[in-house]
Amino acid sequence: MTLNAQALGLLQQALQFARHDPQAARRALHQASQAGIADAVVQREVARAALQLDPALSLAAMARAVELAPADTALRFQYACLLAHQGQHAASLPHFEATVPGRDDAQGWHLLGITLQRLGRHGRALPALRRAHALAPTHPGILEALAESEFHGGHPDDALPLWQQVLVLKPRDTGVVLRTAESFNRVARHGEALALLQRATTEMPGEGDLWMALAQTAEDAGDRDLAREAYRRALALRPGWALAVGGLLGLDRAKADDADVALGQRLLARTDVADADRAVLGYELGKVLDGRGQHAEAMEAWHQANAARRRVAGRPDVPALQQRVQAIIASQTRGRLDRIGKGGSDDPRPLFIVGMPRSGTTLTEQILATHPLGHGCGELPDIALIARRLAEDGHGADLSGIPAETLEDATRRYLRAATRNATADASCLVDKAPLNFFHLGLVALLFPNARVVWCRRDPRDIAVSVYAENFALDERLATDLGDIGHYINMQTRLMRHWQAELPLPVMELVYEDLARDPEPVARRLVEFARLEWDPACLEFHRSERGVQTPSRWQVRQPIYTRSIGRWRNYGDALAPLLAVLDPDSYPAEAPMPSAENAQASTPSA
């Protein structure tokens, strides 16, 4: 008997044993693998036979087969599939990348795309999934995978029609309904999102996630009554559901129902509540207590919320962020930006509102968006996504060497997002993503005729507001008062750099000035935006446009001053913040405390 014949005989034994004696089958497979150790065909067949019986052997045998027949692309593709099947996506990726282009079939491109997707690389997944879709335009799995990557890649306009197609195929799939509604919201079609969710909750009234999504969408649309009803339906389906309780508390804050407040406090006091839920409850309870004047209790709730959020998300790497800021300052100077030149669009309409979160960016946007020729884009993710894709492609902080076609595609996609739902005559497109202050060098490269508004506010009020807010998990710097202070300092330092080096005009707008005497500041803002003054700009609170930020309810009220000096309610609790704030972090309206009054004022001060 030759070696290969012996191996094949053992394989046949294994197949015979597989149903009634798995242990004997595994033994035979190991023996077959050893007998055919130098035969790629034997190793491939062992891998196939061992797939369910012995996954580790299956993988080892296929790896050996590829080693023995390195030119066999079909074998290497099978190895990639096996790695992916066992959850080893990073290991499978180079094998898919090496073999899929030669196959050029929908299955291969689909597998390459979802492998990249599972590694969180949605931008890189898109070309593969688009190719798969072109080859098999009605394949349900490809449609859904492409829709997901278009959505996460920052292309909601492209994702929405795909999700609508998937929804036709899966009308009662809760996940598909939710993603379709979220895509409607991303493109500011809130009415259609509401209609979809109302229809879905009618057809599937027992799905709590649908009621939660309806409540949150109703909040964004300004329908408080519908939001409250939907939160209550969600809570009835899942008694004690932290997200629903938090939603009700956040909706009415100081006026929240006492029974809801008591429920939130009981849940927060329990030791078996998950940290993700504890964070939501703590943030919203704190706002209720703050609104009722119970400031010590509010701060304690926020301490609990932020501690829980840190346990979930981890602590930030402040030194790494400081290094990032230093790299930007060192590399993106006026001289270097001028040498790179203008590679984007000369469109004069984009205006970028930047600054710390909770510094008045939403209010500033609303003033301009209410102008007949202004269009509020909300917080577009596009600039940050463009920056991330450029970094993934190897373009460093100095922004040099970016191909012209890459810049053209970026500006085209950005303008498509910025003009979404804008009137044809809109001459000012207002993007209020506050953290774009990291990317203003890129903005200058893409839109050399753009303008920038830097929103500033007393850093102590910013810090209290940020510490109290339920931000996304990746906003780790928001969970510690000292870290927030460092973040404010870095933002101030970087903005001072942009004021000196950026080849774009930058207007500094202080929230306290705007709140105390709105019209002169609003007039300066409108003039800076190259618009004629219109009294409608001071009637922004009457606007019915959707607002998807934590300020959604505040901007539906006239300008008020009660948030100025709010930090004074929190006394010594702010010591970690005050210990790190730089003098320049205080705008003119909020001077740094003097040496003899460096401690936070008490509520009686």
TrEMBL record:
Ranges annotated as biased composition (Polar residues): 596-605
TPR repeats: 106-139, 208-241
Organism expressing this protein natively: Pseudoxanthomonas suwonensis (strain 11-1)
Keyword Transferase: yes
Keywords: Repeat, TPR repeat, Transferase
InterPro entries linked to this entry: P-loop_NTPase, TPR-like_helical_dom_sf, TPR_2, TPR_rpt, TPST-like
Molecular function, one GO term: protein-tyrosine sulfotransferase activity
Name this protein carries in UniProt: Sulfotransferase
Keyword Ribonucleoprotein (UniProt): no
Chain intervals for the UniProt region annotation (Disordered): 586-605
